[in-house]
Amino acid sequence: MKAVLFLCALSFVLSEKTLNNQFLTGVLEGADLISKVDALTCNYSPSDDDQENKFTSAWEKFVVDLVDITVNCKFEYALRPITNLRTSEKMMAKAQQKFEDAKAKGQFPVLSDINMYGKILGAWLTEFMRMASPSAFKFSYESPSIVALADSSALPILFFHGINGACTDSNYVEFGDYLREQLGTYVSCIEIGNGAQSSILMSMTDQVNEACTKVKADPNYQGSFNLIGISQGGIVARGVFQHCSGLQVNNLITIGSPVMGVNKFPSCEFGIKCSIYNNAARLGAYSSAFQALGPGGYVKDQYQYQTYLKKSSFLADLNNERSINQDYIDLYLSLGYFVQFFFTQDTIVIPKQSEWFGYFKENSEIMQAYNETLDYVNNYLGAQNMDAEGKIIRTLIEAGHCDLTHEQVNQYLIPYLQ
Ligand SMILES: *[C@@H]1O[C@H](CO)[C@@H](O)[C@H](O)[C@H]1NC(C)=O
């Protein structure tokens, strides 16, 4: 008797496993991943509910299954875009419409067939990815078989370094090498002037003009490309994006950038460039001498906001704070994503909340979140519309200024570098 029970139990386990394999094989076939990923590495079983109800094609259930699959099969780079997609009501409505249309057209045939259900889910996983982030499937560092999918179809990448830095600094060289290695695409750091000194002493307008000329001269940036700005480089990147006409920026990414301005500068203690800078700073934030320096372009004293509006040599225009330039709004709405990295322990960008477009309320020390500022409430740059479309990705990193690990680059940056 006991032996029989044992055998029965064993055969049940086997058939369940076969069922799961049929299902997972279906998912991988549907997602066109069958030759790239071993179904057995996925630890996913359809719920009992699935098996009893024969895979009801209800939209809500379908979405839950999609998410479970991405989690359990460790499709990490699918998970984030899908999560983003799910937080955008508009995009979810669009996806659901597609789903209902497909159902109406009879594209959900025999759902009692577990392999078929898997295939349909797999195909929809791909469809979702396409809607959320076309490249997201290409990269996963935990499953080498998915890495094999990475090809040179990633767009070229251009990045700008931070203040007092140069493209030849080892950290920027390493950053470029890493992206090149992971994405197999063209990556370059465009230098302005002589690097470190010019980043402080050249006005933001001059920096952006020079950058624009250099970008336009590089044949790799004639088509669509992804643009990254690190720290002050984010101001340069935004300047190039908004002022350099004819460029096709796909995703714009700022990493620890003072996009709403700064009201203090970290001390600048050594060398001639610092003494010029410090002398100019003593003349006042809105003196023409200070405005003519790189950082002068984005200094914003909340106690002199009206002076800032009048005298700011760069940021007030860039942020549409003085008057609305519809072209800027149209440009932002044309982006795939605007990804903003914020570092919780940042002591270089003051206030650090600027990295997510937060800032002090005028004449006060009250910190306003990105969605409480005049800029957002009055929709100066169309951020409300971008949010409605799920185009702004606010990424929080619990570390000091621009202190990203390789894992964080993999997880939060690579997916947006298609
Ligand atoms: C701002 O956004 C946060 C987080 O998304 C939300 O909790 C808060 O209610 C929003 N505030 C306003 C004024 O919309």
Automatic annotation (TrEMBL):
A Pfam family of this chain: Palm_thioest
Gene Ontology MF annotations: thiolester hydrolase activity
InterPro entries the UniProt entry points to: AB_hydrolase_fold (IPR029058)
Stretch forming the signal peptide: 1-15
GO cellular component: lysosome
Keywords (A to Z) from UniProt: Hydrolase, Signal
Protein name from the UniProt record: Palmitoyl-protein thioesterase 1
Lineage per the UniProt record: Eukaryota, Sar, Alveolata, Ciliophora, Postciliodesmatophora
